Amino acid sequence: MSASHDCDPTSPQLTEQQAEAVKYRAGHLALSSGAGCGKTTVLSERLIAEYRERLLHTDFHDLRRVVAVTFTDAAARELLNRIRHCAWKSVDSKTNDRLACVWKNMLRGLDAAPIGTFHSFCGRLIRRHALALGIDPAFTIANETLTPTLKSRAVVRCLRHLLTNNDDDLQIFAVEEGLPAVRAMLEEILDDRDAVDLEALSRKNSTALVQKWTRIHREQFLPQELRELKRDLMRRLNVLADLQPDDFNPTARDNWLILHESMESLERFSHKSETGDPADSLNWNALGNVLSRMREAAKIGNKKGWANEEIKKRVKDVFEGIRKRILDFQEKLELARDSLQEDAERSIRLARLAWKTVQEYQRIKREEGVLDYDDLLTTALVLLHQDSRLAAQVARSVDLVLVDEFQDTDPVQARLLEAFEQHAGEAFRLMLVGDPKQSIYRFRRAQPQVFQSFRNHFPDQGRMVLTGNNRSIPELLDVFNHLFEELLEGPEDALTHGPVTPPPGSLDQYRDRCRGSEPPPGPFTLLWAKVDPKTPVEQARRAEARVLATWLRTRLDNGWPIRSSKTPNAPVVWAKPDDVVLLLRTLNNSSIYERELVHVGLEVHIVGGAAFFTQPEVLDLINLLAAIEDPADATALAATLRGPIFGLTDASLLAVTLVEPGNPSRRDLLRGFATGEPGDWLDDTQRSALRRARVLLERWRDLKDHLKVGDLMERVLFESGYEAALTAQPLGDRRVANVRKLIRQARRFEAGGGGRLTLADWVARLRADLRKPPREDQAVTGDEGSGRVRLMTIHQAKGLEFPIVVLPDLDRGLVSCFQKNSYVIRPDLGLVVKPPVDREDSRDGLTIAKLAGEMESRDDHAEARRLFYVAATRARDALVLSAAYDPDEEPNSPAMQLLAERYDCRTGQPRCGIANQKPTATVAAQVVNLPDQESNPTRSPLARPPSSPPQVALVTRVVQEALSDAGSSDAPTDALARNENPNTLDSLSAQPMWLLTQEDVRLPLRVDLDPSNKPDLDPIRALVDRLLRAVFADPEGMFATGSSWPSEPRRVLIDRAARRLGLASPRVVDWVTQILDDDTCAELATELSQAVIVHRMVRWSNIMGDPSRPTHLVYGFADFVLTDSNGRTTLLNVVMDDHVREHLRMALAVEPLQRQLGVRIDRTTAFSPTRKAGRFWDPPPIMVAGTIPPHSTRSESEAKGEGSSSMKEIRRAT
After folding, report:
1. Residue 76, number of CB atoms within 10 A of its CB
2. DSSP secondary structure code for residue 305 in this structure
3. Does the predicted TM-score (pTM) go above 0.85?
4. Average pLDDT, integer, range 949-961
5. I need a surface site. Which of 119, 573, 1069, 1081 has the fewest CB within 10 A?
6. CATH pick for 24-127+389-466 out of 3.30.750.24, 3.40.50.300, 3.30.300.70, 3.30.450.20
7. Binding residue positions
């Protein structure tokens, strides 16, 4: 039910819950909003209403007293755009002159309104009071490029000082961990320095720290662990809920009853810990007796008397799981007292080192005159705490603070709001909007408890909820409420149907119309790829990707009904590939899914994530740059030599390290590479590769101090041939794009350092990124949409919605940060360090390191379930959960464990609720079990050829003649047919291209077929060509889609294109105007007007040569790709002459264009504006080795490879 409110008539209709939140003025407001319930709409409407009310009585300067804080800059821009849109609509409506004047004033004052992130708000606050803080008002903010460099410099400077002064703490850690490990540890601690008070911890007494740890273990850890135990045991018992008493043997039946009776006692203990009673009041001895009784009862007894063997096995597995789980809990009841004191001293020792490093980092920032992003928050907090008079002045300059996504707030930001509330006047108000169930930024120190703490301190009337979901169909809401029941605060927190959602079952009638023999897709699907449980993880993931890709393709081809929009009466349409999104926790393994989707003919667009620094091509370049920068870095040299750039085998590396023949004990890679001769150990190919590596590395090391980092990387890529080789690999276009992105990052890094940063700084920055990868997206290689399935991270998808959401790799286990690092920082425990490797810990209790690991693991599991909630609730019409999973096995991931608790993964039926009541869900999941078809090479009748570059073997002489201006344009066949030069690519050894020197390959590494870049082309002709194509590329110019004639004079449109190119030559403009006469324009415009879809100036690239042989990159662009109403697609190029280059530009473009655009090109044609008649003509197709023109067919002998020898030339197919 919707309700209007007191805002402008152009404002959207709000639900009663939303309108109540917008109107509320009685005090602080904490608005808990479920997924898809319109919290951003409420926030923007509340802000608009506040602005309107203030402008009616004051002026636009009063807007500065209202602060809106968002989580990201993008969210701030969206909020500003919403306000601007509403203001302009109100001005245009002209319903009230006074209100129109108010909206105009709002638009004037909007740019000065404080709308932005916490960091931007604090930055403005610090600049305003910089002198009071003792800070230069002209300070700069260190960006993400400069900050890691400054931190690395601080650690190095601090370690040098401590080593010079024989610091005891450093010496102890250096002996135990090694100095490089200590350095890496301190750099990482700098990133989390605000998570704990390092200064206070460094001065703490070890005994006091032990007492604190003991109290946390007893009062926090054990009660939470008890609740987890109760829930886990209940989940295990519910697995057997479908069995009858007669199915058990007598002993197991009696034990089954004992377990259920004991669960009631365990429930009482758990409830006592949840009510807030002190943990010490729990009778731990009585609890231990209950658990011991349950352990003894979890046995099946006699092997006889069972209904069948399958039931016996199920019960046995459940009982064994119960015994192990109880034993695991009992082992955590006590701390290992004998090691606590030593662990506390180690933590304090590391805290002292970390605090000295922080002080050095602060000194370096003062020297540079910069603050980093963390400083903005902490310095603003200092401002509000150091001077109460100044704090009151600052706080009373603000009347209202609205905070979006408050569940992602960290403790420092929370203390800022508390300081404002403490020093502000009585009129000060807070409006906090968030959803604790969607708190997924723990790696940024966000804590969902912050929202709950603020909410609990607000009065009852200031605690509101939004539950009306306007995104998902009712069947999915039913699934969400049941699956995530444990995340809800109560039944009143469950999602309900919003006013724009359709009634239940609205898509069922359309599902019955789906094609194919398989059941139509339901709103909720469980897709399990059946693999052997012993299959390695990566192999199982590939199997799941194959099954998922084939299933998705089948579903899309058979018809998948979705709503065309979120309106109540929106028409139902069939889903397209761009309606499908795959959401992953990280994109580290996205290439597996991308490759399989491409295999079945589904193009992919990767949107975001943090997988950039895990890509092999990025790692290859980082290793190479490290080897260039530091000739003494043996690790980087070894990785570079055995990597794809030089291609030495492990046996060759071993031979290189042998500096004294006959003495295997003397090995030195650096010395052997620089001076050694491997003798007969290497074959000719490896010896040539080694010589090439020496020459190139020596050359690049000589250049590293004379070239900018970006220029050096460009040179390295060109001289090594690595970039061209990448194009021949699977997903080559993305690999090349990632390499190019790394070069752009290097140039930005140099620019951010003002010319003072060197290759050594860049390598240090890259190594820091490898240790703690930033959330850096892979390079984008195609437009979002355009018939592409999207892959993105769950964090990237937050706040978005999609018709069909697929969650693959759902059973992926978690890796705690304590498993990767040697320390952990927690606000409760402080800084905890792992014990030395050689220390033998007591088996009689829990060490502090294990306690920290358990607490980290529990927090990770809780966030993983919230992440699951965020991902699932992005779905509008359908949700698909996919995994390489056997429903009869124990799940690995928190998401799968939750799913197994709430649904029977074999049948899809919902299980009992949390309190063992009836299931809250009425919608069952559709379960699909598919075996992996890896052994079947065809895999699927829908499978299309993989989207890899075409393999084209060319003869050297032929290509040289065809791509030069020496060839006769009247007889291109002769240039293509001759093969007089025996030095073909086939005569070269079959080795990777990057192992060849430029003397081995006489063809140009990259061939540009851009008509404007023809060799020896007259400069004026080149400018004419560029201007002509700029005119063609203008989507609003004389050749606009759907128009048969330009709406503006021809000369005006040509002049506009010339200005865009920066051309000021009247001669060129006159020449183009003469070429595009009325007849020419009319003919081409008529052809374009018949197209439904027009792609203009599409860049493409093609590979010449088999991947195992030398390869060359040929690239160009297609002028037009046209699709008519019948679905036929035409490649149309504008050709100024009939040179063979133009024939090649058309022939080599077909396959990559089909791959990029996801279409089949049915026809190729050319348009020559310089001809007086017959401007449109179809060139004879050119057969290129390894490619088939779209209108030709392969003979049986060619399909078997018998025609391969004749296809090593480019020839006319007539």
Report:
1. 18
2. S
3. no
4. 30
5. 573
6. 3.40.50.300
7. 33-40
